[in-house]
Amino acid sequence: MDNRLFRRRSIAINFRVFDDATDTFIGRMGDLSPGGFMVYGPAVLATDTLYRLRVDYQDDKGAPRSARFKAKAMWSGADVNPELFSTGFRIYDLESPTARKALEDLLHRFTIGDEGDDD
Where is the PilZ domain (predicted)? Predict the structure, then answer.
């Protein structure tokens, strides 16, 4: 059973995602929604764990930017690609204006699909 609050949206670019606390690469973003995202990476991640994550991207002028989120790993396991593992994160700090703005920027500029599909 799918317990998502929002539909996933495909992203046009596979952004690199890091554990911001350790600066460790954890994988590439596979999809994004207003409530969370999925990451494809080299290892299974601990679930029920709150991570501080960083997503690196470029703004509309090409300058490097980073979106930082507190996100909880809801599930993690083997992917259909035997070389990867996938992890689903729920974002937990959307009350932060900075995190909300970064998420809106990523959703607006880099996702494929109609924003009206989220209801």
Answer: 3-107
26 within a domain of the structure (yes/no): yes
Task: Enumerate residues 6+ apart whose C-beta is below 8 A from 76.
Answer: 44, 45, 46, 47, 85, 86, 87, 88
Show the domain range for 84.
9-113
At 103-113, the pLDDT tens digits run: 888 888 776 66
In a domain, 19, yes or no: yes
Q: Name the residue with tokens 């204006």.
A: 97
- CATH code of the domain in which 15 resides: 2.40.10.220
Cα angle 52, 28, 21; round to 5? 20
Q: What is the DSSP letter of 114?
A: -
Contact 67, 55 (CB under 8 A): yes
**For the whole prediction, is pTM greater than 0.70?**
yes
